[in-house]
Design a protein that fits this description.
It is a single chain. The protein has 2 domains: about 5-35 and about 160-315, Rossmann fold (3-Layer(aba) Sandwich), CATH 3.40.50.1100; about 40-140, Rossmann fold (3-Layer(aba) Sandwich). Helix content is about 40%, strand content about 15%. The strands form 2 sheets. It has a 6-stranded mixed β-sheet with strand order 1-2-10-7-8-9, with helices on both faces. The protein is built from 10 helices and 10 strands. It has helices at about 20-25, 40-55, 70-85, 95-105, 120-135, 150-165, 180-195, 245-255, 265-280, 305-310, and strands at about 15-20, 30, 65, 85-90, 110, 140, 170-175, 200-205, 240, 285-290. The chain is of the alpha/beta class. The N and C termini lie far apart (about 45 Å).
C-alpha cells in the first residue's frame, strides 16, 4: 500500500467491476470513487488547482471559488484544506445535504443559489453569482471547470491511458457528460491513440449539452443547463440520453447486486446497457463504462423510497426493475 502525505496523492485507478452477473450484459465498470473525495472529480480538482498554481493566479492565502453541484465541490474542499487555501463553493438546492455538510466539515464556505436563471437554470444562476463575486472582490480565484483546459487534461493524462492499458481490445467506451471534461479528455485520447474505439456520451434527459430542450432535473451530476464550452462534439461517436427514472432504476438494480453507486453512475449504466442492447448485433463487444461516483451521498434521494415516490410518482416503487423491484422501507 502507498504512503501518502496529502489526500489527492491517492486514487485507485485499476479497479473494474464485471457487471455481466448483475446486468446480464457484458460491461466493465471503471470505479472512480475510491479516493478521499469519493469521485472522479478528485482528478479534475487536482488538475485545476495545479494549473492555477503554475500560472501564478493562485498562491499562498488564496481563496478559490467554484460552481459545483456536489462532487467537484467535495474534491476541491479536500485539496483546499490540504494546501491551506480558502474555498467558496457555489451550489444549488439539488446538492445533497450530506455533500454540503461534508464540504462545511472540511472548512469550505457553501453558498446555495435558490432561484434558477431564466436562460440557464441553476447552472446559469451559479455562474452569474461567481462572475459577480469575482468582479467585486479580487481575492477570489475562479478555477472555472467549465472552460479550463485543465479539466479535460486530467482525463487525457490519467483516466484514458489507464483504460487503454487495461483493455487493449476495447471496442466501446461510455462516458457521462457533465462539464464534459472527462468526456473530452477521454475522447481526445482515444481518437489520437486508438481511433477504432467508439466513444459514446451519456447525457441526462433535460440537458442542453447536445441540443436537447432544457427540462427540470433533480439528480445532480450529469447534464447541464448551459452548453459546456469544453464540448467538441466531433470527438463523440454517439450520444444516449437517459431519463432520470431510468437512472434511479439502474442504481437500485446495481444495489440489489451489492454495488451502491451514485446517480451519475446509474445514468451511465442505463445508457450503456440500452446502447449495447441496440448495437450488439450478436457479436462480442468489449465495453467499458466510467463510474464517476459511489452511492453513499444519495441515500436521502436516489435510494430513499419516499424521495423517489415524491419526485417521480408512486409507480416508481412498483415498476419492475428488470426482475429487481425497489424495496420500500419503514422506520419503527
Amino acid at each position: 500500500m502507498p504512503i501518502i502525505s496529502a489526500p489527492h496523492e491517492y486514487h485507485e485507478e485499476d479497479l473494474y467491476v464485471d457487471l455481466a452477473g448483475v446486468l446480464g450484459t457484458s460491461l466493465y465498470l471503471k470505479c472512480e470513487g475510491l479516493n478521499f473525495a469519493g469521485s472522479i472529480k478528485l482528478k479534475t480538482a487536482r488538475s485545476l488547482v495545479e494549473a492555477a498554481e503554475a500560472s501564478g493566479v493562485l498562491g499562498p492565502g488564496g481563496i478559490i471559488v467554484e460552481s459545483s453541484s456536489g462532487n467537484l465541490g467535495v474534491a476541491l474542499s479536500i485539496i483546499a484544506a490540504s494546501k491551506g487555501y480558502g474555498f467558496l463553493c457555489v451550489t444549488d438546492p439539488r446538492c445533497n445535504d450530506s455533500t454540503r455538510q461534508l464540504m462545511a466539515a472540511l472548512g469550505t464556505e457553501v453558498h446555495t443559489v435558490r432561484e434558477p436563471a431564466a436562460d440557464g437554470g441553476y447552472l446559469g444562476a451559479r455562474l452569474r453569482y461567481v462572475e459577480q463575486l469575482c468582479a467585486l472582490d479580487s481575492r477570489y480565484v475562479w478555477l472555472n471547470q467549465y472552460t479550463s483546459p485543465a479539466n479535460a487534461d486530467a482525463h487525457y493524462r490519467w483516466t484514458a491511458p489507464a483504460i487503454a492499458a487495461r483493455f487493449t481490445d476495447l471496442d466501446v467506451l461510455f462516458v457521462g457528460a457533465g462539464t464534459t471534461g472527462t468526456l473530452m479528455g477521454c475522447a481526445r485520447y482515444f481518437k489520437e491513440h486508438r481511433p477504432g474505439v467508439t466513444v459514446v456520451a451519456v447525457d441526462a434527459v433535460g440537458s442542453v449539452t447536445f441540443g436537447g430542450p432544457a427540462l427540470p432535473r433533480m439528480i445532480p451530476g450529469l447534464g447541464a443547463g448551459v452548453r459546456p464550452p469544453l464540448l467538441d462534439a466531433s470527438y463523440v461517436d454517439d450520444v444516449v440520453h437517459v431519463d432520470e427514472a431510468d437512472t434511479v432504476k439502474a442504481c437500485h438494480r446495481l444495489a440489489r447486486g451489492g454495488f451502491l453507486f451514485g446517480g451519475s453512475t446509474g445514468t451511465v449504466i442505463s445508457g450503456a446497457t440500452r446502447w449495447l442492447a441496440q448495437a450488439g448485433d450478436g457479436r462480442d463487444i468489449v465495453a467499458v463504462a466510467i463510474a464517476p461516483d459511489l452511492g453513499e451521498r444519495y441515500l436521502d434521494s436516489v435510494y430513499c423510497p419516499d424521495w423517489v415516490e415524491k419526485t417521480y410518482g408512486p409507480d416508481m416503487l412498483t415498476t419492475n426493475l428488470e426482475e429487481s423491484p425497489l424495496i420500500s422501507m419503514s422506520v419503527v
